Structures are given as C-alpha cells and as structure tokens.
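Dear colleagues,

As part of the handover before I leave the project, I'm documenting each prediction I ran so the next person doesn't have to rerun anything. This entry is a single chain, and its sequence is reproduced below.
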Amino acid sequence: MTSGLLVLVGAVGWRHAHWRGGFYPAELPDDWLLSYYNTQFQAVYLPAAVWQAASAADWSRWLEDTQERFRFVLESNGAAAVPPAHPRVLLATPAWSSEHVWWLDEAPDMRALARRISQRAASGEPLFVFSRGGDLARLEAANTLRQVMGY
C-alpha cells in the first residue's frame, strides 16, 4: 500500500440519510458529499451492487473528488465483474477481508480494535475499519484511536 496509512476508517457508502444536517451540512449539494466525506475518513466500502453499477464517468469523478491517500474497498460477490484498475481501488475478497477489515458494528470494543491495530502494524499491512450503518460515534472513536496510536 503506497499511501503510508496503516489504519483507514470509513463506512459502507457515503450517502447516509441520518448524516444530513449533522455530519454533512444541510445545504451541501449531493454531488459534493464524497468530497466532504473524504476529508473526515480515509476509505469507503462499496457493496457490489453499487460499484458494479457505476459507470466509467462515475469512477473518474469519484477518484478525482478524493485525496490520493483515500481508498475504495469493493465488496466481492464472486461475480465476474472486474473492478476499475486503479491503485486506490481494492477488491475485498473474503480471504482478504478476514485479514484487513474490522467491522465496528460487529466488534465495537475499542481495546480489541487497538490490539488488532497493533497486530496489523507488526505485519505492515493496512487495517480498514468500517461501519455498515454509518454509526458516527463509533467512526469518530475509531478515528481518534487511530490518531492516538499514531496511525
């Protein structure tokens, strides 16, 4: 991973209705949501149905609207769909996910997450910390933990 980031925090998608007027300013145009999201998080997890339906123009815009260190993690559904060939786009096969993904919704224990981060740091491989439901409090706690641990 060329970005140098060891712990990347984010959610499944960036369009959570309950974020509007709280996380996202109420007046923020829909086409600016990803640009804003990527200032607070380092990655996004996209379900197969979302990324496979995206056009080449969508991908071009998404990559342009995000920072170089930002990563797109794509759900693998076993279909023959081919993800965009780009170093910032990662396909999350089940084997890869078991090593590289921590689901905040399933394991919200921050002490356990800190231990997992330390384990991944020893290997030098990144850990992606995601919330399926977009729980902002847990995402903020994970981002704080990442910063406190120096990642």
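The chain has a mean pLDDT of 93. DSSP finds six helices and six strands in the chain.

All the best with the project,
I.
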